[in-house]
Amino acid sequence: MERVYILEDGVYLRKNGDNLVLTKNRQTLEEIPVRNLKQMVLAGYAALSGSVLQVLMQNRVETVFLDKNWRFQGRLNVDEHKHVQRRIDQYRNLSDPEFVAESARILVHGKLENMARMLQVRGKRMKNQELLSKAAAIRALGKELGSLQDVELIRGCEGHASRLYFQVFDHLLTNKNFSFKGRSKRPPKDPVNALLSFVYTLLTNEVQTAVKTVGLDPYLGALHVIDYGRPSLACDLVEEWRAFLGDRLVLGLINKKSISVDDFVYRDVKDTDFVDEKDLRSKRPVEMKPAICRAFLQSYEKWMQQKILDPVSGAYSTQSGQSVHGMMDSVPH
């Protein structure tokens, strides 16, 4: 296995030969072979022995720490990328308003095209005029991008297109046990939004890894403004792939009834304002049960390894491989 997710609270990870052993209350939960392990993601509260840290560093296993809300906390780095010049070029280019605007236009155009294509393809298949109408409206916005020179106007165009897209997202749900009344986040207010937020977090983590691998600073982007703790470049690059990768996965699982409304915990929350992450968790109206969270992660890994046809080259590649290459080619050099 190349990637492992550890979701349990109160677990301890120790080394045993060529394996990492996950235990809780002195009971073995899982043995993880170190061989071929590329990434370990820990969500919640886990303890690692010193020998485990040494093995992870020696084998250059990227180790990502997330909180219980799947927000990024930190990453175990063996060393920083040595390509200093690449970051110097990134800082210089992203200080140039023309470069920022051009980069933002490219990113937003890709996002709008994927949203429009999703609505158009499914609108034709379902003979749904509302989907087709919104697809045409989003494509029309995409044509206006070339005339926009101000990055704030480009951001506004992206926001308008996203609102149009999510206005008809409910029409994409053929499993009528689920409903969608609009995009909500921090916290998500229904199961569909909870799944969307979860898969977007997974994709952003995927992109952040790719960004760091090539030696760029993930916290400085073009489309997303600088905000403390937010990996703006990773957020920029994932935008184009939300509909193509994230939304298609969520819709597939829901419409095939692989996920049910009973797979979620619901809370009657009156006040959703929060002061910190702990407070946010206690006020989440809905969240996945642990079993479905693990099942979703398995589906995500399988989905990202599916082979798809690249419409440009005509070659087959994995979802993750094509998306990472596409992401890294999205910003002009």
Protein architecture, described:
There is one protein chain. This protein has 333 residues and is of the alpha/beta class. Strand 7 (62-66) and strand 8 form a beta hairpin. The strands form 4 sheets. Strands 1-5-7-8 form a 4-stranded mixed sheet, with no helix packed on it. It has 11 helices and 12 strands. The longest helix has 30 residues, at 97-126. Helix 6 (191-213) runs antiparallel to helix 8. The model is unreliable at 310-328 (pLDDT under 50). The protein is globular, with a radius of gyration of 21 Å. It folds into 2 domains: 3-76, CRISPR-associated endonuclease Cas1, N-terminal domain (Ribosomal Protein L15, Chain: K, domain 2); 85-328, CRISPR-associated endonuclease Cas1, C-terminal domain (Four Helix Bundle (Hemerythrin (Met), subunit A), Up-down Bundle), CATH 1.20.120.920. The protein has helices at 50-58, 84-93, 97-126, 129-144, 151-167, 191-213, 232-238, 242-255, 277-282, 290-304, 319-328, and strands at 3-6, 11-16, 19-24, 27-33, 39-43, 46-48, 62-66, 72-76, 264-266, 286-288, 307-309, 316-318.
The CATH topology name of the largest domain reads Four Helix Bundle (Hemerythrin (Met), subunit A)
Report helical residue fraction: 40-55%
Terminal-residue CA separation: 34 Å
What would CATH call the class of the largest domain?
Answer: Mainly Alpha
| Structural domain tally | 2
Q: Which segments are poorly predicted (pLDDT under 50) over 5 or more consecutive residues?
A: 310-328
Q: In the CATH hierarchy, what is the superfamily of the largest domain? A: CRISPR-associated endonuclease Cas1, C-terminal domain
